[in-house]
Amino acid sequence: MSAASSNRKRRTDLAALIDKRVAVTPLRLDLTDQPFLTKLAELFP
Amino acid sequence: MGFASQKTDDIEVCCPARTCYRRFRPARVCGDFQARRMNARYRARTTSRLRAYAERFGVCGWPRARAVLETYSEPTAPSWWPDASRPIMGGIKKIREKKRNAYPGHQRRRHSRAGPQNCEEIARRCPTTSGQLRRSTISPACRISLSLTIRALRQIGERHYAVKGTRPIASLWRAACAVESRRRRAVPASNRGRNAAEDVLYSGTVAAAKEACVLGIPSFALSQAHSANNKHQSGIGRPRSSTAPDINRSRAEAGIPRTCWSNINFPDCPPGAVKGVSVSSQGQAPISSFCISTRATMARQSVLLDRL
């Protein structure tokens, strides 16, 4: 899957700008990837 | 003969601007009368005797310099320094106006004319904002040093401040002001150029909103996308000023978490062509849209990762 089509499917800010729409993206301070954190926790119990 | 001295020689210089002569080097000779009055003596072998002396003051620097400047200056040309005084002035021949830019490699960035007006309009129409931040026109090389001075903050309009410094520092400035005045209101940061996808990692605008968020102040980043063709088009930027207040109001009604800020990007089109607002996630730019270029800056070669 190309990045362009992935952006369009995921309703990303890039896709919104291409569609001439205002993109509002809520961001947060915590950059932790929770799914990968769970996997790593299983590897390092 | 006077009380102060037996003889006084005054050397005066012409001050054209004041249409007068000013004394700049007095020299006095004091005789027995003055020595007796002040009981000035010198030590001889067996006794002490009254001491007559000569008193010569040094050259008064400022009156002399002023006289030279006024005499040798011309209305449209730099002031010339006379040959006789050049050795004590470090060999200079002319006095030129000091250049304002004392930093090497300083380049002023051009800002859009509509940028500050847009910021002011947003601030005026946003009831929840307490001020606008705008990046200063200082180049990146000079930002850090200049941002450490208190005078870096200046008001350029109604509820609109310009800060000499990076956006994080600008945000801290505004946050400090907001905390001081106990007005915890939203802090917006604005940018000309989109900050989507990976731009979020490197954007100073987003970093400013993040810094304010760290301090517990609701914030959002406003970015106006543009292309090379419509970069200087006058209509670009209007969607931002017309839509931003409504979006901000809706965000306030929804309740903004303390650990969250918003990155708002506006498309590069006139206000009428905007199709609406889309709540989106952070995207990822295709790798094919990047290119590696080289640039020589300040006697060294830099490798840049840029967009096509």
Describe the fold and architecture:
Chain A is α+β, with helices and mostly antiparallel strands. Chain A contains three helices and one strand, in the order ααβα. Chain B is α/β, with parallel strands linked by helices and 308 residues long. In chain B, the strands form six sheets. Chain B has a three-stranded antiparallel β-sheet with strand order 1-2-5. In chain B, strands 8-10-9 form a three-stranded mixed β-sheet, sandwiched between helices. In chain B, α3 packs parallel to α8 (238-254) and α5 runs parallel beside α7 (204-214). Chain B is elongated, with a radius of gyration of 33 Å. Chain A binds chain B through residues 2-4, 6-7, 10-17, 19-30, and chain B through 194, 196-197, 200, 206, 210, 213-214, 225, 239, 243, 247, 251, 257, 259-269, 273-287.
What form of chain B results from the Cα inertia axes?
elongated
Helix content range of chain B: 25-40%
**Average of per-residue pLDDT values of chain A:** 84
What is the spatial order of strands in the main beta sheet of chain B? 1-2-5
Give the H and E element order of chain B.
EEHEEEHEEHEHEEHEHHEHEEEE
Instruction: Report, as a whole number of angstroms, the end-to-end distance of chain B.
Output: 90 Å
Structural class of chain B: alpha/beta
Strand content of chain A: 15-25%
Quickly give the structural class of chain A: alpha+beta
Provide the helix percentage of chain A. Answer: 40-55%
Greatest interface and its residue counts? Answer: A-B, 25 and 40 residues
